[in-house]
């Protein structure tokens, strides 16, 4: 479209076509990739020594010291003493009416009977004092057990052998010794030879000492045997002989 005297109007398209692309050859592309790889390897080798030096230069981090725990504060609790409670106020005294103000019963009405006062409870009479008990007669002191048993035929103060001490401390043996002494006197009065009777008695005393070394029962058996021998001599049924 043209107007008179003006050049013709040219309209440009809204979306111009893109410029033509340059084609890169395969060899140029491979050369670029190889150049980029070589450049990366060189930069890595150059930065490695510096990285090792930086890691060695770093010092280990010192542990952070924890703040010391402060001791717990103890609070002294003081209990305040409560003031003593005030005593309650005294009760007002009871008012009593005088006798003339007491209401009298109306006429014609019998007054109420007055209850008699309760009889006092009888109290038991006090018990009569006990008569003092008569003082009992003092008891005779108990005699201590004698050191020696019942007295044998000899004086225990002159005991000079084990058998004699055993006889003095044993009532059964002391009684057997007295019985033996009586049988010995009867044998003397029976007319037995005195010297032979004494020798036989000495032999028996030695036998009694041997029995005392065994037991009191052995001594009692020796006495029983000797009493039987002396009674047989006194009755004339036996002659003097050894044990």
UniProtKB/TrEMBL annotation:
Locate the region Disordered: 1-25, 81-152
Top-level division of the source organism's lineage: Bacteria
Q: Which residues form the Lysozyme inhibitor LprI-like N-terminal domain?
A: 156-232
Ranges of biased composition (kind: Pro residues): 84-96, 104-129
Record field: compositional bias (Low complexity): 1-13, 130-146
Instruction: Give any Pfam family that matches.
Output: LprI
Q: Under which name does UniProt file this protein?
A: Uncharacterized protein YecT (DUF1311 family)
Q: Which organism is this protein's natural source?
A: Phenylobacterium haematophilum
């Amino acid at each position: 479209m043209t107007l008179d005297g003006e050049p013709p109007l040219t309209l440009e398209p809204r979306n111009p076509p893109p410029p033509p692309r340059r084609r890169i050859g395969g060899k140029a592309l491979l050369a670029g990739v190889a150049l980029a790889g070589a450049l990366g390897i060189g930069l890595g080798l150059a930065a490695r020594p510096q990285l090792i030096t930086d890691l060695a230069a770093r010092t280990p981090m010192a542990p952070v010291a924890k703040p010391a725990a402060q001791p717990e504060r103890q609070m002294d609790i003081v209990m305040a003493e409560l003031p003593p409670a005030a005593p309650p106020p005294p009760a007002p005294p009871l008012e009593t009416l005088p006798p003339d103000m007491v209401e009298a019963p109306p006429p014609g009405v019998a007054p109420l009977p007055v209850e008699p006062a309760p009889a006092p409870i009888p109290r038991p009479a006090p018990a009569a004092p006990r008569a003092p008990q008569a003082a009992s007669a003092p008891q005779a002191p108990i005699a201590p057990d004698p050191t020696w048993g019942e007295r044998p035929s000899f004086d225990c103060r002159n005991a000079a052998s084990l058998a004699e001490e055993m006889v003095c401390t044993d009532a059964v043996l002391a009684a057997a010794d007295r019985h033996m002494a009586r049988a010995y006197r009867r044998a003397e009065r029976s007319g037995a030879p005195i010297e032979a009777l004494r020798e036989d008695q000495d032999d028996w005393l030695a036998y009694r000492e041997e029995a005392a070394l065994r037991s009191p029962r052995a001594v009692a058996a020796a006495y029983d045997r000797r009493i039987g021998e002396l009674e047989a001599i006194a009755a004339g049924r036996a002659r003097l002989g050894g044990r």
